[in-house]
Amino acid sequence: MADHSETIWFESALLDAGWARDVRLTIRDGVIAAVEAGAARAAHEAAHGPALPGMPNLHSHAFQRGMAGLAEVRGPSADSFWTWREVMYRFLERIGPEDLQAIAALAYAEMLEAGFTRVGEFHYLHHDRDGASFANPAEMAARIAAAAEETGLGLTLLPVFYAHAGFGGLPPTAGQARFIHDIDGFARLLEGSREAVAHLPGAVVGLAPHSLRAVTPAELAVLQALAGDAPIHIHIAEQTKEVDDCRAWSGARPVEWLLDHASVGTGWCLVHATHMTPEETLALARSGAVAGLCPITEANLGDGLFPALDYQAAQGRFGVGSDSNVLIDAAEELRVLEYGQRLARRTRNVLALEAGDSTGADLYRAALAGGAQALGAEPAALRPGAPADIVSLDPAHPVLVGRSGDAILDSLVFAGRKDVIDGVWRAGAKLVTNGRHHRRGEIVARYRQVLENVLA
Ligand code: ZN
User: Fold this and answer.
1) How many domains does the chain have?
2) Ligand 1 centre and the CA of 394: distance in Å?
3) Neighbour-count burial of 91, counting CB atoms closer than 10 A to its CB (0-12 exposed, 13-18 middle, 19+ buried)
4) Cβ neighbours for 299, distance < 8 A, ≥ 6 positions apart
5) Region class of 18: left (phi > 0), else alpha (psi between -120 and 50), else beta
6) Known active-site residue 272
């Protein structure tokens, strides 16, 4: 019988039990088959730098990468999430299937280069430019799958159900025409999405009610049944206006309402959950759901600060997502998360779990576990049985000189840029070498052509 295993040797690696030196991973069929620490490097093995499990990116809208930096001009009145959303709606009006694939491929290649090895694509751009359904209702989902396939990024596809413009089942606006389904149409999209990813190794299909603004309670109940054991994600409590509107509609705040009216548990990811009372924070932590934090986007949109310290004290689970993709960088998501807390509290090392802990390492480990849970994926870990999703750092980079153990993670999170990343493997395939995705050239060339046309 042919043995398709290969070995990769790292000078050190972050294993479940902590950092180990001279680590050989044996990879078979995309999965880590064996882990050996204290292993002398064989003559035929290349020497790689410190190895980390690849970070899951639990929340992305890939097409928004194409408008990164285009919503930073001051408008006539106070700019907010809602004025940003107008720019985003105008941008997406121009995007067809090929455009979506080209932009998503760039975003996904950048994710791999930035230390992410799986994405949760919260996908809501479903219909043609005039709002009509494509012949294949999952045409756009298939383009997301194609972008994941050509870049090699792991995919958890989360087709979004969007039916209303506001609480109480308000009819959608013209700008939302490309997102809209009834439940029957959505069930067809879900089926088509499963077909679209069927050939992708390790792909997962969950679903996403867009927000409590966009679904009615009756629709939410049906969606929860449709999801079964698959991941279910929802945007929630990102904006204070959303909290006010929810209270006006129901008398309850968004997270409070959701915890009272849905079976929120470990299959759920509540994206943002920025505006919570201490009671909501505690209840969300106890639910076992993951808070999907997107610190760079939340800062960019002026959303507010997640109550991270209280949530962490209640053993709340979280992961990170690049959301609007205004900047794609796994370590920087963690950096901005911690820095927001430091600025608000005027103290340091807020999210280290206990005295003596490294902040970068605690953040990295928590986001690995929360991200994998939210995406319905196998644990993101360097251990036998886990997917071979690995990030190696450049041991010669100045920022890593003299660092070992968790100081490597602190230096990556607080002192490094993307160029600290050397190699990235996804399901055992090496996709990034010297910090560069192996198809970057062709992906950027196509993106340039597509985007110049979209923005013309
Ligand atoms: Zn989002």
Assistant:
1) 2
2) 32
3) middle
4) 336, 340
5) left
6) yes
The rounded Å distance from CA 171 to ligand 1 centre is 21
Write down the catalytic residue from 48, 272, 275, 437.
272
Distance 230 CA to ligand 1 centre (A): 19
Tell me the percentage of the chain whose pLDDT exceeds 90.
93
24 and 167 share one domain: no
Comparing 14 with 72, which gets the higher pLDDT?
14
Ligand 1 centroid vs 52 CA: distance in angstroms? 26
Q: What is the CATH classification number for the domain harbouring 20?
A: 2.30.40.10
> Is residue 449 pLDDT above 50, yes or no?
yes
Q: How far is the CA of 59 from the centre of ligand 1 (A)?
A: 6
412 and 431 inside one domain: yes
The CATH number of the domain where 116 resides is what?
3.20.20.140
- Quick one: 212 and 106 in the same domain? yes
Give the percent of the chain with pLDDT over 70.
Answer: 99
Same domain, 70 and 202: yes
Task: Note whether 37 and 62 are same-domain residues.
Answer: no
Q: Residue 296: which residues within 8 A CB-CB, separation 6 or more?
A: 322, 323, 326, 327, 329, 332, 333, 336
Structure confidence by residue, pLDDT tens digits, 346-360: 999 999 999 999 999
Range of the domain at 245: 55-374
Q: Identify whether residues 175 and 263 lie together within a single domain.
A: yes
| Nearest to 231, CA basis, from 301, 293, 155, 295 | 155
pLDDT tens readout for residues 250-282: 999 999 999 999 999 999 999 999 999 999 999
Same structural domain, 88 and 200 = yes
Q: Which of 99, 323, 362, 410 is catalytic?
A: 323
Is 154 in the same domain as 135? yes
Q: How far is the CA of 248 from the centre of ligand 1 (A)?
A: 23
- Residue 352 maps to a domain: yes
Q: pLDDT, tens digit, for every residue of 230-255?
A: 999 999 999 999 999 999 999 999 99
CA of 16 to the centre of ligand 1 (A): 31
**Residue 323 among the catalytic residues:** yes
Q: Is the pLDDT of residue 2 over 60?
A: no
Cβ-Cβ contacts under 8 Å for 383 (sequence gap 6 or more)? 15, 16, 32, 35
